[in-house]
Batch of 3 targets.
Target 1
Amino acid sequence: MANILIGTCGWTDRALLASGWYPPGHRDTEGRLRHYATRFPVVEADSPYYALPSAGTTARWAERTPDGFRFDVKAHALLTGHPTRPAALPADLRGRARDDALLAEVWARYAEALEPLRRAGRLGTLLFQYPPSLTPGPRAEAFVRAARERARDWPFAVEFRNPAWWHSDRTAPFLADLDATAVAVDTVRDLPGSLPPDAPVTTPRLGLVRFHGRSPHWGTGTKEDRFRHAYSAAELAEWLPRIRRLADRTDEVHLLFNNCCGDAAVRAAETMRTLLAGALPGPRAEIRSFEAPGPI
């Protein structure tokens, strides 16, 4: 039986805060997360991509969420080869050479910051999202393998943003050898940078799908342009057979919505939960929800 956990990529997006989804009395830092955790059992923490959190911050995340809640945590930009502004690094590391020693230090601080989540049983997976500039080949595989070696004791998921990875027969066995989850994605189709919707199951522990929306500006434009999309029920229903296959072959499935446009992500997550509740009845899968029984 697979647990299917549905949530969103972040809980502090400015568009979501402005949408009115958070009720009065739950719009401060603590109240937002506590409210979110009454509605969904998983969230992606994307802020560590931009700046390393403190262990105190992640300890508070754990304290404000119930047992069984999961955080999927994005890796810091430097760890995945993205261009990294000096301001994104701790002050004492900003003058350092961008070499393996710096990567090792950033990893050590990232792992230390996430340890409270792991101790509390709140960590879902680390999410290493690699940029389109990382093209498949021996050097790229060595870079990913080195990251996995640093994180050898942690759950590890990989999202490749270059579609060439999924046109290579090497990718699935490579990730399986790393015991890494291959992240499936939903994006607009038929653009040069479009990603295929299917990803192989490369570890039985976790299946992960990130719904980025179907904006025609994928791969170009601003963040708001790339991810602005309101999913219809019909678009989400296309995923039901794929999710069923994931649920059949993994212990847990995370479905995370990244379509930022007001409250579009939370509405899509709620729609997906309704669709799955009807499509996967019985013992095949458990759709987990922490939805509150009434007003809070």
Note: The mean pLDDT is 91.
Target 2
Amino acid sequence: MVTAVLLVMIGKRVVVILNRESGTMLALGPEVARDLLAEVFQRHGVEAEIQLLKGREIQGALEKARDGNADSVIVGGGDGTVASAATVMAGNDKPLGVLPLGTFNLAARDLGMPLDLEAAAEALITAPLGEADLLEVNGRMYFCVVVLGFYPVMALGQKEYHGNWMVKTFKTGWDVMRLLATYPPLDLVLHDGEKEFRCRTRFAALANNDYEDLMGLIPRRRSLDGGHLTVYVSRHRTRFGYVKSLVAWMMGRWRHDKEMTVFHASQLKISVKRKRRLAVMCDGEIEKLTTPFEVFLRPQALRVLAPRLAEPEAEVEPADEVAEMPEEGQQ
């Protein structure tokens, strides 16, 4: 009986749009993935139109699926593909499901999706319906995080890697430790409409809500709809300081890092002294943005199929209190 009720969430007709260029698809094989998904949906009585598309074809397919007669739209790919889907589906009543076919799959992890493809498809069948906040940058929606500083610049110079997330994490960590202490700091200026915060930093991140205090390398957000940006600004100056910060993050103790400034906002205007163009990473995709630019939190802008909402363990302890933006000029 429970399954019958929850099946209404995904509906009887779905469009499944798969990025055939994503990491998992390249490893597994697009046709193999398509056939596996078709079997799962058929087994549960869901009529699924499955499309294997290149990255440049996805936006048009999403728009067509949004305006069609399907009950739900499911997208498979990495976080950049999910961002494309969020941009198209924001404000629409039709729910979006996510299949984790990228490398890190931050959005899928936040939604509580299993990383195994068959298990993920099964989870979508009975996934509760929820509403998720989004980040808006220059009119485009993002699900997870906006990153400034050395990391986007470093990523620009690397060959894209489509493989195991643990291997990519190790490779990324090695490059971070090698380069971060030598990257010139940014003179960052953040303005929330009332106050201004200035800081010299090599790394800053604007997350869609808070991250949980959990052990591990891959973060997971505390809530899908907390209604705020959480801003993380590093004030570390040495490689040793960054190493300590990384260890604190892995141990789930980043809040005890005295060289990390953390505060909440609902929107921010971002500028950098002496820089008119800035490399910014938005959900894994590198954008070169003209400064100043603005980031907005769009509360409950996206209807999502989210297995985590059915899990009792998703109800975590309340977060420690996070301050609003520090006083003007405080670093």
Note: The chain has two domains: 2-133, 142-299.
Target 3
Amino acid sequence: MNWRAAFREQAVNCAALGSPFTARLLDLIAARGLPEGRVAARIANWQGDPTSRGASVPLRLTGALHGLVLERRAPGLAALYPPAGAADDALWAAIGAAVVAEEAWIDRRLDHAPQTNEVGRSAFLIAAARWLAARTGLPLELSELGASAGLNLLLDRYALCVGGRWFGPQGAPVRLSPDWRGALPEDVLLHVAGRAGADLAPPDPVTERTRLLSFIWPDQPARLERMRAALEEAARLRLRVERADAIDFLERRLATPVEGRLHMVFHTVAWQYFPKAARARGTALLAAAGRSSSSEAPLALVAMEADGRAPGAGLSMTLWPGGQRHDVGRADFHGRWIDWRPPEPESLPW
């Protein structure tokens, strides 16, 4: 797919996910191109898949433009960003001026794939963790694959509002209130005894705060505020994610069953980006660890991933002992809505 088609495709996706401004930005760039120079040439000659299924080149560029706004490097562009409104011609002129003035800076930012570490996905993770805790009566050991900055590892620090009820700690820094369908979350005390995550390029929540914020779409202020709050909590707790291959990390985490804890391995919109061989190895490692699990040291794989179906992403849980996989609903990719359908009790291994 050529770069213009990739930008148009991403514009459709952004519109569907509630960001008309980002969709408009991408459509403008696809229709009118970019000023001649290093940035335009790099995008036009990008090697590999430029779409969201590959390198996500359109979101690399919109993230760079938003970064200029957040860092106050492009006041002319910032003046036209939400909540301000602007005609297409004015917005396009400001984009072109920013690309010319900050060519080297934007070019460096194109090196980085989007890492939104979407905190809204914790709504599903909270429901899954509470369901597991209620069924096993055990504290949780968390392991996240493709963790980015690790913000979703703090799921027990966040509160979830469903049906007018709050599930989570009082005074939680992040409060999630998605459109909820299906079963209510379990009303149990969530105890996380340990947590760890891995990513090939984990961004630091302190030193790379602005870059992480830049990948949040500028016309979604609630998401921006949620991300700011989560980053502040991660900085306060000095949360760190291991710089490592996710499957190597998984092998180490699964090496010894954790007695007296339920080990919840999870990934959200990350598995699809792992190489095919890595996915096969990860699946084999989980199956082998599952064979060594027990009711005193159970294992669960919790996943939220694109599955080629609509709407949203598929939700699943695989439970050991036994290794039975359960489809447990669907969710918006940013957690705007959750359809939570946990397994029936008679199908459980515990």
Note: Residues 119-347 form a domain with the Rossmann fold fold (CATH 3.40.50).
